[in-house]
Specification:
The chain is an alpha+beta fold. 52% of the residues lie in helices and 13% in strands. The protein has eleven helices and eight strands. The chain has a four-stranded mixed sheet with strand order 1-4-5-8, with helices on one face. It is globular. The protein starts with a helix and ends in a 7-residue tail after the last helix.
Length: 385
Amino acid sequence: MTTPVEEVVAVLRTHAADVDRQSRFPAEGLETLRQHGFLGLLVPTEYGGMGAGLAELVALAREFAGACLSTAMVWAMHCQQTDLVVRHAGAGLRERLLPRIAAGEVYLASVTTESGKGGYLLSANDSLTATGADIAIDRQAPVVTGATHADGFLITMRDRPEAREHEVTLVYADRADLSVEETAPWQMMGMRGTHSVGVRITGKVSPECVVGRPGKFREAANDSMVPVGHLAWSACWLGAAHAAFAQLVRRIAANANKPGGTDVTSPLVQERVARIRLDLELVSAYLGKVCAEVVEIRARGGRIDIPAVQIHLNTLKLAASELTFRAADRMVQLAGLATGYGTASPIPLERTFRDLRSAALNYSNDRLWTTNGTLCWADRSVRLL
């Protein structure tokens, strides 16, 4: 008997190459995640969900990403949005939406990007407008993962036309209440299966659909969106690199004594393998420590937005994105041209390399380096993790 996790992994692995080759949304993977209840991983049990926590999210993200990184990222970002609803939506929206997520009826997409500001979370140009008892949405976004397949959206917008750009409000909108027009294709080097197209979203929602305090999205972002995002993304990147390395090690060892096989006693080969392992060990250890820190803070009702914890979360994203890609680069070099660089290789190193190159660009590392530099002055006790 296979477990639900094993069944999901098998489906993701079966379709991963075709999803990448055709640059298409991983419909089969999302469907099996729906069927097995994994869209409701973070939904509390009283709403019909699994009631799992961040440690379970991290563990599953690693496993799913080892089969298909694009699908794992789509799912991880959905879980990030679910956490926002669980922790910051009002009672009415939670009661209406969370059972649907738990039942696999609602895949959530995140709308935070805007032309001119990139992926910066805490500002917005397009504003909400009041129309009688409802709130009108007219939103342009150049990159929205899974936009054309989502059943619902969490959208950042300026709170009102006269509000300042940092007075941002998060709203939930059901697809049935919206018009979603694709405005730009997704033509990228890697992460092709996320199908992160540009869209224009228009429609109306009720005031009940505001998630968190109006104009205070920063609070929800610091408490939920940023920590869950950094943990889940890092887990996905590590899972993809780890799976590729495990396959490579087994292949090299199996062929070591065959003609043309890699000489595993070579000091050069040993050093290259050791350096790859070092990068993955460091990311794994730091991911585990940051996850434990966030879980502990949440358990006691503490604040995540203090400088030291923010530094730890940003450092996790920086380390995971850079070290997993460096590991993939070294794996390509170690495997050689046919196995490491070939699209027909039995090990998907070429795809993993392309996918992981995006990690430093997915919320730009340049921004996080300067943010951490600034935060260091606020954490003069230098509280290391």
